Sequence to fold (90 residues):
Amino acid sequence: MPNIQSSTSLRNHYNEISTFCHENREPVFITKNGQGDLAVMSIEMYEALNGKLELYRLLDEGMADIKAGRTRPYKEVFDEIEQETMDGRL
Fold:
C-alpha cells in the first residue's frame, strides 16, 4: 500500500519520511491541498529506477534493430570482442 503524506507532513516530519524511504526502498507520495503533487524517494532508489529505464531504452533500441534487419551473427560479434580484448582495446 502506498505511503501518502501531506506537504505539511513532509515539512514537519522530513527525517522520518527520509528514513522510511531509505529503509523501505519505497517512495512516499506527497499531497498538496488533498491532490497528488510529488513522489519522494532516496537517491539510491532514483538511480536504480533510472538504470532500469536506460536498460529498457537499450532493449527497445535492440528490438528495433532486429525488426529492421540490422543484425550480425553472434559468432562474428563474439570473435570481434575476443580480438579486441586480446589487442587490449577493451
Summary: The chain is about 60% helix and 15% strand. The chain has two domains: 3-41, 45-86. Helices lie at 7-12, 14-24, 43-67, 74-86.
